[in-house]
Amino acid sequence: MRNSPIPPGTRDPRLDFFRGLSLVMIFINHVPGTVYEHFTSRNFGFSDAAEGFVFMSGVAAALAYGPGLARSPRWPTVSRIWGRSWLLYLVHIMTAAWAIGIISAAALWFGADVLLTKNAFRPLTEEPLAFLIGIVTLGHQLGYVNILPMYAALLLAAPFLIRLGQVRPGWLLIGSVGFWALVGTFRLNFPNYPFEGGWFFNPLAWQLLFTLGILTGLALREGRRFVPQRQWLFWAAAGWLVFCLVWVKSDAMLKGLGHVIWQFRQWGAPFWLVDFDKTFVSGPRLLHIMALAYVLSMPGLVPRIAASRVVAPIRLLGRQGLPVFALGTVLAIFAQAVKAVHPAGIWQDTALILGGLALQWAFAAARERLSPKAAQRAAAALSAAPTEPPAQPDLKWVAAPAR
C-alpha cells in the first residue's frame, strides 16, 4: 500500500524518538567505566548510536531541505545548508574549548595528569602551538569531541547529494557505494595534524550512511519506502540482528568467527568488507545498522511507541539535537574528569549519568519553551477565535547533527 506524501512542515515522531534515544546512548557511552554503558546498543551488535545518528541525520536533511532544492531558485536552500555546516564548526570549536578547559582544570587543580595522556590531549603539553593549529583547522580532534567535523563536511555535500537523489536516485546510490569502496580500498581520508593518520570519523566513508538516509528521507517525503516492505527481507534482517547479538555475546563465536575473518584477510579480502573498522564503516557494521533501520521502520508497534506520551521526553531531546549534543559532550567530559579525580562507585556514576541527562532535558525544554517558534505558536493560539478548532502545532523539520 502506498502511503500519502508527507506535507511540508510535518515531522515523523519516530525520527525525533530515535534521535533522542541515540543522544542518550551517546552521552552514556562518552562516560566510560560506568555500569550503564553495558546497556547501550553497541553491546548488542556491531554498530552503535553514531551510525544510527548519521543515518537519521541524512533522513532529516532530505525532509528539511528536499522541498527547497526541488524548486528554483535553489540558492536560498543551499545557503541554509552551508550555514548549518558553519554553525556545526562553531559548536565544535566551543565544545573542544570546554573540553580543553575541563581537562586542564582537572590536571592543574586536582592532580589528574593522567587525563592529559588520553583522548589525543598529549600534544597540548608537548606541542601546544601545533595543537592549537590542529584544533581550529580540524586537523586535530579530541576523543569524544570528534563527530561534528564529520557531519559539517557531509552537510557541505548535502545540497548536491539531495538534488542528485531527487533526479537520479539510482545514480546516487551506485555512486555512493562505489565511492565508499574506493575510499576503503585506498584508505582515503582527511589528514590529521600534528598527529599522522586521518580523521577517526572519516566523512569520505560515512557519506554512505548519510546518503542512505537521504534516499530514505526523499522516499518518505513522497509517501513511499526506499526499501520495499517484504516479509522475507524482514526475517533476513531480523535473523542477521540475532546472529550479531549471539556473535558479540559468545566467547566461542568471537574466537571462531574472528579466526574466519582473519583467514579471509589472509586470502586478500578487503578489510572494509570483513573487518569491524569504524573509521571506514566496514561491512559488518554497515549491514548491522541497515538491518536495524529496516526492522525498526516496520509499521505497527514501533511507530506507536515513538508517538506515545511516555517517551515524549526522549522526543524532546531529539528535536533539540544540536544544543543537546553540545551540552551532553561538555557534561560527559566533566564526568570523565570527576571519575578520574574521584573514581567512587555506582552511586556517583548514577548521579553523573542521570544528572547529566536531566540537565540536557531541562536545557531542551527551556529552549523549546523560549524559542521564537514557541512564542509564535502561543501568539497564534491566543489570537484564535473561540469558535475555531485548536491550532495544530508547527512541526517544522529541523536537521540536527550526529552524535
Task: State the gist of this model.
With 403 residues, the chain is mostly helical.
Note the topology:
Blueprint: H1 13-29, H2 49-70, H3 75-110, H4 122-126, H5 128-137, H6 148-167, H7 169-186, H8 203-221, H9 231-249, H10 251-266, H11 271-274, H12 283-296, H13 301-307, H14 312-319, H15 321-341, H16 346-370, H17 372-383
Helix pairs in contact: 1-2, 1-13, 1-14, 1-15, 2-6, 2-8, 3-6, 3-15, 6-7, 6-8, 7-8, 9-10, 9-12, 14-16, 15-16
Distance between the termini: 34 Å
Number of helical runs?
17
Proportion of beta-strand residues: under 5%
What is the radius of gyration computed over CA atoms, rounded to a whole number of angstroms? 22 Å
Annotation, overall tally of beta strands: 0
Helix content: 55-70%
How is the main sheet built?
A: none
* Class based on secondary structure composition and strand pairing: mainly alpha
**Overall pLDDT level:** 90
* Unreliable residue stretches: 378-403
Which overall shape is indicated by the principal axes computed on the Cα atoms? globular
Would you mind describing this structure in some detail?
It is a single chain. 68% of the residues lie in helices and 0% in strands. Helix 1 (13-29) runs parallel beside helix 15 (321-341), helix 9 (231-249) packs across helix 10 and helix 9 packs across helix 12. Residues 378-403 have low confidence and may be disordered. It has helices spanning 13-29, 49-70, 75-110, 122-126, 128-137, 148-167, 169-186, 203-221, 231-249, 251-266, 271-274, 283-296, 301-307, 312-319, 321-341, 346-370, 372-383. The chain is mainly alpha-helical and 403 residues long.
